[in-house]
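Give me the fold.
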Amino acid sequence: MDEPLRLGVIGLGRAFMLMLPTLAQHPRVRLVAAADPRPEARARFETEFSAQGFNDVAALCADSSVEAVYIASPHQFHVEHVRLAARHGKHILVEKPMALRLADCAAMIAAAREAGIHLLVGHSHSYDAPYLRTAELVRSGDFGAVRMITALNFTDFLYRPRRPEELDTAQGGGVVFSQAAHQLDVVRLLAGSEIATLRAITGRWDPSRPTEGAYQAFLTFANGASASLTYSGYGRYDSDEQLGWIGELGQSRDPESYGAARRGLAAVASPEEEAALKNTRAYGVAKSTAAAATALAAHNHFGPIVVSCDKADLRPVANGVMIYADETRRFEPLAAPQVPRAEVVDELYAAVRRGERPLHSGEWGMATLAACLAILESARTGREIALRDGVSAG
């Protein structure tokens, strides 16, 4: 096997915590540096990985030991950090959403192109093995063309501890930027086509959480397929019930923990207290999972999804794909993951080491952001939004 990628991390917050088991255990990547303003996070990283910690992103990007960076900083800093990393010739994996404005996405793509480096966007759930396998089955031609996709997800997203900007849509808060990006990526992968039109409504149903907590969207694709998307983060019904109580991260869940997120916020008296509560989940404060056994019984997922084709309905689940044909049904299992979210590193590694064109390129991320913005615009104006090449055509 070729040498592992030498990876630097920008931002040791919650996104990094979710990717930590992957980055710590995948044999094709080695953590060599991290940048974060919090000294406790840097100290923990230096001890755990025998690696360099920086309080300055520019210093990390200038470090010759780093050949690729994972940008897990807050949304509003992505464009600045991508430009900086590209200027130093580092390959880039930037968290979704790629940015908050299409102009920033275009600038990031241009910076990567000028530097001759690879720019990938993720993690999003379109990296998950069940959806990748479903897409392979669709592309095989055995089931005919995709006609309709139905996707839904009900979670407690809005009641997990948040910083003030995460409850402000203008700063990238709410479920559209953070959660629709996942769902849109998944249905775009499964449809195998770009979005042509989008009509949506959004829900702001709790004045104490003044951002979008829910949405519904109807999409048509350039190849004639359609998709309906439903998401609610209001912490009541939990759609993991339909997936055997396997959680989004592939973990077993306890249905008796109903309402835990709302109960956790009940004792919080101010935005400052809530931000502090969120910080307890960040690296350097929360217990690290880097050295823990991370083999899971199931893969990541993003709620119940059905792909309706000419000759069958396909239903990806956390451990495989159910196939419902005209006269028979069967289950195609997937082996349990040894490293969660391994597909993210696999795609980055293939791009950098083998020169393979990544699916989740900057252009892919820009098209996803365009669809997120179209959800907000359609909800605001009551109009159907036409998209062309990933951007609004209206």
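The two ends are 49 Å apart (CA to CA).
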